[in-house]
Design a protein that fits this description.
The protein is an alpha+beta fold. The protein has five helices and seven strands; from the N terminus they run H-E-H-H-H-E-E-E-E-E-E-H. The chain has helices spanning 2-21, 38-45, 51-54, 56-60, 154-173; strands at residues 25-34, 65-69, 78-82, 89-98, 102-111, 115-127, 130-140.
Length: 175
């Protein structure tokens, strides 16, 4: 019985230790240069419906159901989706627009697990004909589930999707 209690105590201490050292937040972002003026790039990006043309998630489930509330390209617009296991169920709401600079939105995932993330797209003029686009998101890893992120890299997993999406965006806007 004493050995069992020591083993149990050891497991509890290990779990507490892992929770303490596991990442509490995440931030993933990628950037690309696009050979178009910042105004052109921003005008395209501020409409969430345009994201279907370049986002890798639409490719993962081309049959996903999408509904919209509000006016696309304006604060308060919500794009809701229900898809397969690769895209799940969730919605994205435009929270803030700084014309020709930044679009802030909130991602709310309902399935396969519930979470919220703050997403953004920044555009910066590199020169008269080139725009740097940075796409990113950040959030909080809830305790005790943050232990999972000791073994899973959000940056590597979602970062690949961001790179693919930005490459698609570059092709579309440089046509």
């Amino acid at each position: 019985m004493t050995v069992f209690l020591y083993v149990l105590l050891g497991i509890v201490v290990l779990i507490i230790f892992l929770i303490a050292i596991a990442p509490k937040t995440y931030h993933v972002h990628r950037s690309i240069n696009i050979d178009r003026p910042v105004e052109d790039v921003f005008q395209y990006l501020k409409f969430l419906k345009n994201h279907d043309d370049w986002s890798p998630w639409k490719k993962k489930d081309p049959n996903m159901t999408q509904t919209y509330t509000g006016t696309d390209g304006e604060v308060g617009f919500v794009a809701h989706w229900e898809g397969n296991k690769d895209v799940g169920v969730g919605e994205q709401e435009i929270k803030k627009i700084i014309e020709n600079e930044r679009i802030d939105s909130q991602l709310r995932f309902f399935k396969p697990w519930e979470s919220e993330s703050d997403a953004y797209i920044n555009v910066e003029q590199e020169n008269k004909a080139t725009t740097r686009v940075t796409w990113g998101f950040s959030g909080v890893n809830k305790i005790p589930f943050n232990v999972f992120f000791l073994f899973f890299s959000m940056d590597k997993t979602v970062g690949k999707d961001f790179e693919e999406g930005l490459s698609n965006l570059k092709v579309i806007l440089e046509k």
